[in-house]
Amino acid sequence: MIAGSMKHAFSALSLLLLATLCSASARQQSPADGSGHAVRAEARAVAYLAREVPAWRREHSCYSCHNNGDAARALMAASLIAPAARGALDDTLRWLAEPARWSSNGGGEGGADDKVLARIQFAHATTAAFAASLLPLTAVERAAEIVAADQHADGSWRLDASDSIGSPATYGTALATVAARRTILASRLPLADRIARAERWLSRLAIGNTPDAVAIAFAFADRDDGPDNWHRALEFIKEGQGRDGGWGPYLTSPSEPFDTALATLALAALSQRRAAPTFTSDARAAAIAAGRGYLLRQQLADGSWNETTRPAGQSSYAQRISTTGWALLALVETR
Fold first, then answer.
1. Which residues contact residue 64 at a Cβ distance below 8 angstroms, ignoring those fewer than 6 apart?
2. Topology annotation, domain 2-333
3. How many C-beta neighbours within 10 Å does residue 63 have?
4. Which residues contact 225 (CB under 8 A, 6 or more apart)?
């Protein structure tokens, strides 16, 4: 039973990261997309991240889990359609290919929680690189062994700083758990107990914000059945979409690029069979199109998106890089 779950979950992960998870209905585009505006928006975002990702290592003494993690994942997905994206990943891929080096990363790593988060983000990017045929399975296996050691007894990957709602750069417990679980699934190592513990923790998670709802939607998107909170997660996503097409962190919050990117990706990851009856085919396609529309309107002239921060309105380079990575990933995965 677990083996079957692992097989299906890894298949879904590969499709998600390679921008082929979208169903025919999810590929339906709004009139704004059809004008070529979306293609130009993607190109601007790729140009921005292709400059910023390699620049961090040149200018600092460490590899950033924001530049070489979230932003790199977006460029990996975009590399299928934008050669410039692939060219910016060489140094990142060399770093990700040697997980044993992650613990000796130079620069300001911060405390123990920051190091755990960095390992999860690097592992997340390594998994994406494997799905895009940019790194071998052996790199994912080593990454999985590293993140597995950080799992808590309750099945989660919990950080002291992540008890609050997740953000683009800090993930939060639910997204961190889903990301770590993906790496373990992708590794194909005999770690079924780790996966089962993570799924038990996720199945008991109370749905109170968009990142948590999306985490549940991702975790059980490929399963024939799901826990009770699966249905609440989909309802939360449905109820949380604003009139502007975006999502905020809570049901009544103003829309934010990060939360919108997350929800749009979650809807694209669902097969129509799994989305029903909460979302009809037309409703799901419309929600995805509206989410894309919000992201396109929010993009800045330099190709980035204003950083989503908790609380909102703060200035953070790390959050801007990660927000832009998530937004670009959402556009690429749903094009």
1. 56, 57, 318, 321
2. Glycosyltransferase (1.50.10)
3. 24
4. none
**Cβ atoms of residues 275 and 284 within 8 Å:** yes
- What is the total residue count of the chain? 335
CB atoms under 10 Å from CB of 271, counted, come to 13
The full set of domain ranges for the chain reads: 2-333
Output DSSP code: residue 68: I
Q: At 296, phi and psi to the nearest 5?
A: -65, -40
Q: How far apart are CA 296 and CA 278, in angstroms?
A: 26
Cβ-contact 209, 250 below 8 angstroms: yes
Tokens representing residue 7 in the block: 């097989």
pLDDT in tens, 42-88: 999 999 999 999 999 999 989 999 999 999 999 999 998 888 899 99
CB atoms within 10 A of CB 192: 15
Look at residues 245, 296, 17 and name the one whose alpha carbon lies nearest to residue 129: 17
pLDDT in tens, 190-226: 999 999 999 999 999 999 999 999 999 999 998 888 8
Residue whose tokens read 């927000």: 323
- Cα–Cα nearest to 120, from 72, 188, 56, 178: 178
